[in-house]
Design brief:
8 strands; binds 1-O-pyrophosphono-5-O-phosphono-alpha-D-ribofuranose; 4 helices; 25% helix; PRTase_dom; two-stranded parallel sheet; six-stranded mixed beta sheet; magnesium; Xanthine_Guanine_PRibTrfase; alpha/beta; membrane; Rossmann fold; binds xanthine; single chain; globular; binds magnesium ion
Length: 171
Amino acid sequence: MVSPQKTFPVSWEELHRTAKALAWRLIALGPFKGIVAITRGGLVPAAIIARELDVRLIDTVCMSSYSEEDSGGTAGVHRPGDLQLLKGDAGKIWGDGTGWLIIDDLVDTGRTAKYVREMLPKAHFATVYAKPAGRPLVDTFVTEVSQDTWIYFPWDIEPQFIQPIAKQQRS
Ligand SMILES: O=P(O)(O)OC[C@H]1O[C@H](OP(=O)(O)OP(=O)(O)O)[C@H](O)[C@@H]1O
Ligand SMILES: O=c1[nH]c(=O)c2nc[nH]c2[nH]1
Ligand SMILES: [Mg+2]
């Protein structure tokens, strides 16, 4: 895994705007039977997209891909753990995924996307952000960031002082 060297903080407004841009791309590809949000990161984008696409049937795939002990909340220390499916009733109503829309906040290495795609091979997989390694696994996304960038979502951050880039590079 590439250690993130850069950070990409995302504000609520920016996330809302970019998720709406994703909705504009998806509306042309529907209608969809429902949305499957990949928890937890997919929940907020899924809510925004459900509102724009007028979808009321929203289900979840409850997953965890980064091990707790390694994810200290700082760029560079996140390490993938074992992929865990945290829900036992997967596939009950989704079948092979035909007509369903899977939403996640981002695809990074593509491990989560690969896992969920194997569960729902015919579903349309969409994310707001994509990194190059995971990009081939996503059908629709909006913004690409480099593999060595860590995206900070608004629910994970709060405003604080940060050193100028030039000073960061000196240290
Ligand atoms: O392409 P990958 O390398 O699999 O990484 C992408 C996944 O990692 C993050 O979820 P995470 O499992 O950390 O849990 P969270 O959604 O609860 O933050 C993110 O929300 C994606 O689901
Ligand atoms: O908040 C996050 N930002 C990221 O860039 C990332 N990659 C995997 N999982 C992630 N979570
Ligand atoms: Mg996630």
